[in-house]
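Figure 2 data, in text form.
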Amino acid sequence: MIPRYQKVLFFVLLIASLAMGVVLWQLRQRAHKRMLAGQASAPTQAPEVAPAEEATLLAANDADNSLISQVRSLPLPADSGARARAVLGKLLDLYAEADSAHPIPGGAASVAQVFLLPAIGKKDPQQPDAELAVVNLTGTFAASHPSGLETETLTLLSICGTLRANLPRISQVRFLVDGQPRATLAGHADLSRTYLAAEAVPTAEGAH
């Protein structure tokens, strides 16, 4: 003879098992619906690659402390900030090449971000929409940059000039390193000031 309490316990466990089965089935159905919804909303085409355009780079030359204008073809995004980062990445890739006239390791990865903000100070009536570019360099780039006033200044001016050549609204440039203000690039060139992009003027034309 099965005791009454055991019968009650059996039915309680049976009901709990059935309820748990129903809950698990409902959770499975919801997960399946979410998966199908995700598949339906996923893009059916690969994202478009930015079209190649001509970009002007002001490349530094240590032999005569000059800035040489070079035209290169590279993919340029429509967004101004991404566009600025792309042209600076190409410039720093040139410096990382084995036969570079201004050798600096790091390449495009040395530019963490470029932010575009309204220019500071008194507005120029001829350029009311002037912008300030804030270039955030990596600490690795600064640590590996050759030390010396001329070579550091050439790097900064080449960045300013390249930005100005490709985004004419940029009139001012500030520099950060790992997102923080820094006194100098590698011990000499001042990073605490705002650079005028017009200060960087090409002294020669290079090959395409």
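Caption note: Residues 1-39 form one domain.
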